[in-house]
Fold each of these.
Amino acid sequence: MTLPSSRPDLSLREGYHSPQVDVAVRLNTNESPFPPPEAWVQALAAEATRIRYNRYPDRSATRLREALAELHRVRPEQVFCANGSNEVLQSICLAYGGPGRSAAVFEPTYALHSHIAHLTSTAVVEGRRREDFELDLADVAELNAASRPDITFLCSPNNPTGNSVDPTTAGAVLEGAAGLVVVDEAYGQFADWSAISLVDDDVPLVVTRTFSKTWSMAALRLGYLVGPAPVVAALERVALPYHLDALKQAAGCLAVRYNDEMQERVAAVVAERRRLSSALESLGVTVWPSSANFILFRPETRKAGEVWQGLVDAGVLVRDTSSWPGLSGCLRVTIGTRVEDDLFTAALEEVL
Ligand SMILES: *Cc1c(COP(=O)(O)O)cnc(C)c1O
């Protein structure tokens, strides 16, 4: 007997995942260095005893969507939740992409946008960012005219470059887009402007958010989208029945009560980001300004791969982004605790 072969196009798509190496200091996946509020953990434990485990959960996640709608001052019908914002992105590609349709990305950007498009047989149209990683609106217009993408992915703040989209640029992209504009705001709480302010039922814009980064809840796998109610209805058609388990729904409802604590974490990370940026600059590496919880940098004296390995040998894991389009020689480091960041800079100094 022989095993059947999987889709041939899947074998081309390896190597997209960040290696999980067992080291003491993990600064490679942009998680929060802080645990979530202890009171939330306690409340969730109590909630876990009240769930009726023999029954399927609320299929439309009513309470969770109400809580998120209140947080963002939109209607519950304008909120779609899923298992991490990556699953939200996948649902978007399933509902608005697919065979014969296309999605535009502007590299360098979050690799999962094109990866998920490929997995859903959505053609990827690749645009580029300028040298300073900003969008060039003339290039965006040219790409729109030539390819008329069904989906346009923006990422703000952009992973891995750290810069964010300003309202004028977002407005211009929206104006010229042929299809749905998706603004991935996984790091949205770090930016001073959110595209959520543009969301309306007759505007072809959705904004994705996650509990994985600023909320300190990556293990929870909860993400969501704010967008036009008809788009949310379309996404519900591609979601699996009961895709959001009861515990996760409860956890998300509880989490939004700790919005103030989350904002405090954001402020702490921003302060630490300033400190780490100057530490990197004093080591003579090129550092890009960041409005997120990570920093893109380029060592000028050694190859990125060697620096990455040297850091791993010293017990520090960062992301090697040097093979990403337009990022030759670059690495990305997540802002950690003071202690972690000091270990990182000491190891980096040693390696350089
Ligand atoms: C981390 C990240 C995500 C993934 O979020 P999950 O909610 O954990 O799936 C989505 N978009 C960007 C840009 C990210 O950096």
Note: The radius of gyration is 20 Å.
Amino acid sequence: MGHNFLSDANTIQLLLLLYFSIATLSQHSSNFLTHPPYKFCSNTSLYEANSPFQNNLQTLMSYLASNASVSNQYHAYAGNDPDRVYAQYMCYNYITNEKCSACIDAASQDIMQLCPNNRNATVWEELCQLRFSNKNFIGQLDFSGNIPLANRETIENSVQFISVVNENFSNLTKKAAFEPTQSMYATGKLALSDIDTLYTLMQCTTDLSSHDCNTCLQVAIQNISNCCYVGRGARLLSRSCYFRYELYAFYEGAAEYSGTQKVYNFPRGKTLTILKIVLGTCIPTVVLAFLTASCIIYFRRISRKETDEEKSHLAFLQELRKSSGSTLAEGNKVKNIVFG
Ligand SMILES: *[C@@H]1O[C@H](CO)[C@@H](O)[C@H](O)[C@H]1NC(C)=O
Ligand SMILES: *[C@@H]1O[C@H](CO)[C@@H](O)[C@H](O)[C@H]1NC(C)=O
Ligand SMILES: *[C@@H]1O[C@H](CO)[C@@H](O)[C@H](O)[C@H]1NC(C)=O
Ligand SMILES: *[C@@H]1O[C@H](CO)[C@@H](O)[C@H](O)[C@H]1NC(C)=O
Ligand SMILES: *[C@@H]1O[C@H](CO)[C@@H](O)[C@H](O)[C@H]1NC(C)=O
Ligand SMILES: *[C@@H]1O[C@H](CO)[C@@H](O)[C@H](O)[C@H]1NC(C)=O
């Protein structure tokens, strides 16, 4: 009884670890799309207000916003070291120059507001993305800080979905990256059933090599498959590329999928969804309850042990008093036990 596993401190540590791994896992599948803009602020080195860096940054942002009315991608720098700022934007190829200009205009304001005083930041809007840094990143693949996002509406059988679409996604990656006429952009349709069609878009920043574009998109597919194939649609926000799929022709200007007319439902899908819900919500709850109970039992046991010790000390002192008649020793001893 004394060495029951509940009272073992190692077991509690292990349970804590288990709980946090499960919590992290279930958090993974809650990478849900909210509202753009999304941001990445490095927060590592900050610039001072009214510094040359801020001046260069503001100049560059308005320069890029005006350039967006002529080209869908651009990069530039402003100023001299150590206050030089490098910046780049990419509008997704299916939008007009007008929309690109408006999007970069909004992005250049959002990036300053969302990442105040940052020397290195990125924002992703619905139709474009914009980044800047004090370091030259042009031509460099960067998939650190990728953000995978899934639509809140989910499909029924994501495992079967993966096996159907993965090869098609991979083929589209090759098309975007290696076919010169595509200029690092490709869209593709895939009929999933009589009524459902999957629309996919892939795009890289054109300063990348074909090889790096391919890598960026393959990593994007991998990142999405790790969390987001549960979604009816998903997108991967990266500094170097963009990947998105939906069950409606978003890149042809179609209205958002309503979720009522079409139902995409692979057979045997329910069990998996239910299993996921069970694993995602019940287990962490049960483990947490178990953990709390363990802690209570553990600490109760410690205090009970102390009372037991106290009792035996008292018994011993009573024995002592019987034999010696000393009360002073008893007072000291008891004090020691209670406060010591
Ligand atoms: C940087 O700071 C912003 C708030 O200014 C915060 O929302 C964001 O999570 C931080 N980013 C990192 C990478 O810590
Ligand atoms: C920006 O910051 C992130 C996170 O600190 C880092 O991974 C990245 O390399 C930085 N990029 C540039 C171009 O400075
Ligand atoms: C926009 O970009 C083009 C190159 O695509 C460049 O020649 C031009 O100077 C830029 N114009 C503005 C207004 O920034
Ligand atoms: C991928 O491309 C290969 C070669 O072009 C083709 O044989 C295959 O059918 C394609 N797969 C899918 C799922 O589109
Ligand atoms: C994806 O699959 C569809 C349907 O089989 C096919 O028409 C399309 O060419 C494929 N895409 C690529 C890039 O292989
Ligand atoms: C995306 O995949 C790359 C390569 O496997 C990995 O280093 C990175 O951590 C992943 N990012 C996310 C958000 O899953």
Note: Residues 1-31+270-312 form one domain.
